[in-house]
Each structure stands twice: as C-alpha cells, then as structure tokens.
Amino acid sequence: MHKLRPGAVISRRKLMTTHSQPIQLPDPTGVVHLQFRRYAGCPFCDLHLRSIVQRHQELVAAGIREVVVFQSSPAELLAQKGDVPFAVVADPTRRLYTEFGVGSSPRAVLDPRAWLAGVRAVTSKRPSLPASRQQALGLPADFLVAADGNVLACKYGVHAYDQWSVDDLLQLAGQHIQPTDHRLGT
What we know:
Elements: E1 13-16, E2 22-25, E3 31-36, H1 43-54, H2 56-61, E4 64-70, H3 74-81, E5 87-90, H4 95-100, H5 112-124, H6 133-136, E6 141-145, E7 151-156, H7 166-176
Parallel strand pairs: 3-4, 4-5
Antiparallel strand pairs: 1-2, 3-6, 6-7
Helix pairs in contact: 1-5
C-alpha cells in the first residue's frame, strides 16, 4: 500500500458529508486536518473525537478545518456522529483509505500502547462491534492538507489510538499556517 509523505499533492475532489453537504478537498480557503478513523462505533475513535469536539474552536481559530472519514455507512455515521461540529464523510468501500494508504493491522487493538485508551473508551461509552474484520483491525491516519493540495504533514497510526492530539495538531499548524492564512468562522 502506497503511503503519502509530506510534499505529496492530492488532487481536488468533492466529498459528501453524512449531512449531504458537499465539501471540497483540499479546501480552497484553508488548511484541512483530514482524519481517517476506524468505524462509527469505535470506542477509540469516540474517545479521540471527544477531544477534538471539546477543543474545536481552538482548531478553527488556528485556521484548521476538520474532516473525518470513517469506513462506515452514512446511516451508521448519522446515528453515531450526527452531532459533531465538523464534516464527517462515509467511506464504506474504503476508496479514500486505499488512495491515502491507510491500512489495518492485527496489532491495532493488541498493541499495549492502545490498552489504556481502550479501557477509558469502553468505560465511558458502550462500544458497538465492528461490522467487518477490516474495521476491527483498522488503523487511524492524520493528514494536514494545504489549500493547494500539498500534504504539509501526515501520521499513519501503528495502533488503534495512535493519532495526533489536539496539541500536536495546533503545534503543526503553527509551523505551517501563517497568521494571514487563518479563516474565521466554521
């Protein structure tokens, strides 16, 4: 599987959110944090997304637009993630996962580094089971994409809870986004 590296350029495309809103990737008005998560009811993903939701305004103020992709159907995502304040995209066929080189691994949930987050996630919300082995073994990935499609930074997770924190993302944004690049609003 071909993984992207900083400096790669992604082609323009229109994606449809779970709320049937078209979005452009890359976003011609600013920087996108493109996240690939596991599946709609994934407890690791829920824990991580709560941290993004709690600090969403900080990300907006830093000039970052969140776009989160799940390997689940739109209906599953609406039921599980319909109230988040950013774009959520369904990719049940894993077309975008393949294009961006986002894979899976048996170590996704077996890696000891994921266990503490797994315990916190499971005790805070009843998880749903993945629909497929591919979802159960899925790995997260993060990309910071400039308005021109340039991949500014990326991270391919090696276990189910291996992704950028909000602090990591804000630090990366500070390195790549000039103050005049910031977009205000949502």
